[in-house]
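Good morning,

Attaching, inline, the backbone tokens for the sequence recovery test we're adding to the shared suite. The designed sequence is right after.
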């Protein structure tokens, strides 16, 4: 049977399987959903076996359980490791949802629910392509599956699990559907992700809050100092001033800059969509280069002093901030983290005490576009969507992709099918049903092209 006919014939069952996953509120950041994590893992085990996996099991980790499955064709055949995650973000604020976030609702050609895209919908794309190839006797690759339940909280248990089960997870290429395309009519393959470094800062001045009339102008205000220190991190050209920050940053190859210029992008619509009148960033780069190929620094939150109703003339004792850097390939997040801590201590005035606490981070990733598996992914997208996909780096971070390469020594192909309008992590998350079906076709064609 041809793949699209198979999808149409099996879609009622596929939708119900999708719904069975969505109805489990597998929210990894909330302790009260611990039992739901195991329930969701067990459901994925059932679905992998039903799809044709010869073996599938729920395996313990240091945190939430892992789901492992495999299908072996022959020694010497290419081995693909499919990674996905079954945990989801909280659904709050619930009042902004137009339907129950854990009961799928189909309207306007989209399926709405928490996890509809990230990552239950995209994971199901992988499993249904696998299912079709197995049932039709067309699967020529060895396939392994590893689904985790902690991606939304930073995957703390994945690396120890991978190290402990390195032999089990050996493969030739890793396949992930947890990223997005440029647009429904502009398919793309993610070829790079930025890394991340994140800190919390605390600036302490006097031993208690002071009257700003009695002490203002004579005693350092921690909020003023904190703002002044953070203001020094970016110069007038939009470059980050941390010493040594750019030492390992590679220039964007001209061939890649040319591909970026081919991406359909309307800067005016971009500004209108987010409600700003102008853009800014590092001199010498356009917007798409700035938000994907170049590093950035941002204050993610800042607080201190009196923020209640009315006024209170106080000189606060403490000020706090959460700050982050998006990093690019070759930059080591631990080196950058140490450099930032040292820089903040260096520029801190003696009138305050400054504490900088590293929180978490991850490496960036770049995929060569001449890999056979990348070429197979191009074939898959072109046959499914009718046009060759663009190669595009993305500005976000998936630290575990670099971890895979470090532990297993294998590259990852990021065949993502999300769209910006899918609103992942937000109320009314959804998945375009036509893209979902095309995704199954694309992954099916990927395997067939890979094994030719």
């Amino acid at each position: 049977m041809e793949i699209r006919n198979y999808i149409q014939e099996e879609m009622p069952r596929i939708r119900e399987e999708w719904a069975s996953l969505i109805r489990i509120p597998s929210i990894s950041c909330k302790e009260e959903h611990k039992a739901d994590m195991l329930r969701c893992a067990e459901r994925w085990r059932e679905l992998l076996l039903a799809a044709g996996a010869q073996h599938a099991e729920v395996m313990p980790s240091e945190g939430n359980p892992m789901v492992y499955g495999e299908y072996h064709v022959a020694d010497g055949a290419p081995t693909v490791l499919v990674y996905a995650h079954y945990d989801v973000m909280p659904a709050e604020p619930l009042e902004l949802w137009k339907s129950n976030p854990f009961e799928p609702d189909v309207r306007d050609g989209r399926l709405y629910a928490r996890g509809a895209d990230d990552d239950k919908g995209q994971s199901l794309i992988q499993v249904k392509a696998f299912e079709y190839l197995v049932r039709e006797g067309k699967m020529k690759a060895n396939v392994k599956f590893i689904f985790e339940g902690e991606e939304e909280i930073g995957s703390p248990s994945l690396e120890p699990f991978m190290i402990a089960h390195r032999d089990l997870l050996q493969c030739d290429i890793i396949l992930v559907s947890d990223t997005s395309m440029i647009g429904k009519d502009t398919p793309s393959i993610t070829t790079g992700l930025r890394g991340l470094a994140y800190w919390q800062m605390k600036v302490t001045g006097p031993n208690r809050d002071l009257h700003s009339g009695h002490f203002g102008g004579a005693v350092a205000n921690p909020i003023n100092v904190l703002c002044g220190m953070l203001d020094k991190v970016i110069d007038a050209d939009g470059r980050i001033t941390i010493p040594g920050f750019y030492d390992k940053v590679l220039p964007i190859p001209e061939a890649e800059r040319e591909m970026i210029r081919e991406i359909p992008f309307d800067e005016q619509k971009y500004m209108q969509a987010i409600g700003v009148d102008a853009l800014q960033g590092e001199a010498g780069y356009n917007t798409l280069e700035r938000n994907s190929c170049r590093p950035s620094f941002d204050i993610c939150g800042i607080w201190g002093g009196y923020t209640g109703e009315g006024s209170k003339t106080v000189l606060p004792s403490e000020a706090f901030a959460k700050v982050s850097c998006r990093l690019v390939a070759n930059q080591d997040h631990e080196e950058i983290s140490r450099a930032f801590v040292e820089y903040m201590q260096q520029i801190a005035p003696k009138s305050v005490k400054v504490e900088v606490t590293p929180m978490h981070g991850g490496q960036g990733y770049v995929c060569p576009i001449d890999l056979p598996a990348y070429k197979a992914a191009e074939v898959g997208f072109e046959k499914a969507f009718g046009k060759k996909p663009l190669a595009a780096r993305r500005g976000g971070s998936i630290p575990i992709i670099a971890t895979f390469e470090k532990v297993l020594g294998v590259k990852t192909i990021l065949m993502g099918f999300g769209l910006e309008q899918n609103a992942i992590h937000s109320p009314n998350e959804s998945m375009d049903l036509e893209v979902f079906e095309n995704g199954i076709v694309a992954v099916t064609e990927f395997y067939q092209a890979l094994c030719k």
